[in-house]
Write a structure and sequence with these properties.
Mean pLDDT: 92
Bound molecules: protoporphyrin IX containing FE
Number of helices: 1
Strand content: under 5%
Number of strands: 0
Low-confidence stretches: none
Distance between the termini: 16 Å
Structural class: mainly alpha
Radius of gyration: 13 Å
Order of helices and strands: H
């Protein structure tokens, strides 16, 4: 049986992916999260 949460592993939880009616602020910390989550996503996929 698959590990709990395994279904989430191939998803990049990019905090800048938002529904159309919500726009991100220009907060640099928020904007920097996108590449950080992408790097983490790549590492997660490459160890599978
Ligand atoms: C308001 C600030 C933040 C909130 C609310 C937040 C929230 C979260 C949450 C809920 C997760 C998922 C944890 C899980 O998988 O169980 C996460 C993961 C992560 N966060 Fe943040 N975070 C914040 C700021 C940041 C910042 C500033 C960075 C780096 C610049 C960052 C980098 C990451 C990374 C790399 C992951 C792992 C993503 C993945 O592998 O899918 N976060 N964060």
């Amino acid at each position: 049986m698959a590990q709990p949460g395994a279904v989430c592993e191939p998803i990049n939880f990019d905090p800048l992916v938002m529904v159309e009616v919500i726009d991100p602020t220009d907060d640099p910390i928020l904007l920097f999260r996108s590449p950080a989550y992408a790097a983490s996503f790549g590492k997660r996929l490459s160890r599978q």
